[in-house]
Write a structure and sequence with these properties.
Layout: H1 3-19, H2 33-53, E1 62-65, E2 72-77, H3 84-92, E3 99-103, E4 108-110, E5 118-120, H4 136-155, E6 163-168, H5 170-180, E7 188-192, E8 214-219, H6 227-238, E9 244-249, H7 258-271
Parallel strand pairs: 2-3, 2-6, 6-7, 7-8, 8-9
Antiparallel strand pairs: 1-3, 4-5
Helix pairs in contact: 1-3, 4-5
């Protein structure tokens, strides 16, 4: 890929990522079908663009905050078709002192949900629902990558109990799965607009403590990962985890908001105090 094409793709990724953070949680009474179609069309167009142009992009992690001698770490995974750039910048605004924020980029690979087009994706998805049909082989491969990132932080002197795993949408699904199947205690888990993949495997698949704090957040008019999927995930988690909180954001679609980020910061302060 030419340098100018690489730069254009990186610019597109940052624009897409940042656009997800601009929506606020003002009440919305009616979401018109036309508006919903426009939003989904833009998502599909962005995913298609990334699948065609982004296949040769680097998947190295983006880091911000205290990168040397940090006392805590937040590893946060982006959603399908996105990148770590926008989330790393956004989370940098709510990070705690002496915290490193690591936002890895998913590999470029075919996604069944998108007719096999190649795009940034943590694991293959057939459909966005609670059927538990996620491709387990690719999910386990992604989980291994995240576990390695946690191990790297521990190797640099950060205790596992000072490390938080988090993510948005598909990245949140990976965060939940990776944290619950990790064998060392963690400080907390953040799942934004997400679901628990292969949920039928739990609680048998769980390898971690029942007491890890879990922060879940979901917009009540999310047209991509439906609000009731988030609610159902919370109920499943509550059946075998002791410290699950579920936050609803009225009028919020498949994106973040200022209030949500303030709540994320409060959660970080609580589980890393």
């Amino acid at each position: 890929m030419k340098v100018e094409e690489e730069e254009q793709v990186q610019k597109s990724l940052r624009t897409i990522s940042q656009s997800k953070t601009k929506q606020h949680s003002a009440p919305v009474v009616v979401l018109s079908l036309l508006r919903l179609q426009e939003i989904l069309a833009k998502e599909i167009k962005a995913f298609f663009l990334l699948g065609i142009l982004g296949r040769n992009m680097s998947n190295s992690a983006i880091t911000t905050g205290t990168t040397v001698n940090n006392t805590s770490s937040l590893i946060f995974m982006h959603g399908l078709g996105d990148s770590g750039h926008g989330w790393c910048e956004m989370l940098g605004r709510v990070k705690l002192p002496d915290m490193k924020i690591i936002c890895p980029n998913a590999p470029i690979q075919p996604v069944t949900l998108n007719n096999g087009f190649r795009m940034p994706s943590w694991f293959d998805i057939k459909q966005l629902d609670m059927s538990g049909t996620e491709n387990e082989e690719s999910l386990l491969a992604a989980t291994s990558t995240i576990h390695e990132l946690v191990d790297n932080e521990i190797g640099k002197g950060v205790p596992s109990t000072r490390i938080v795993l988090g993510g948005f949408s598909q990245g949140g699904a990976l965060a939940l799965y990776a944290a619950l199947t990790y064998t060392k205690p963690l400080a907390g888990i953040i799942g934004l607009s997400t679901w628990l993949p292969v949920h039928q495997k739990f609680p048998n698949a769980k390898r971690n403590s029942n007491t890890i704090p879990i922060f879940q957040a979901h917009g009540d008019i999310d047209p991509v990962v439906r609000y009731n999927y988030g609610q159902l995930t919370a109920k499943i988690l509550e059946s075998f985890m002791e410290n699950v909180t579920f936050h609803t954001y009225h009028g919020l679609m498949h994106s973040g908001s200022d209030q949500e980020m303030n709540d994320v910061k409060a959660f970080l302060q609580k589980c890393l105090r």
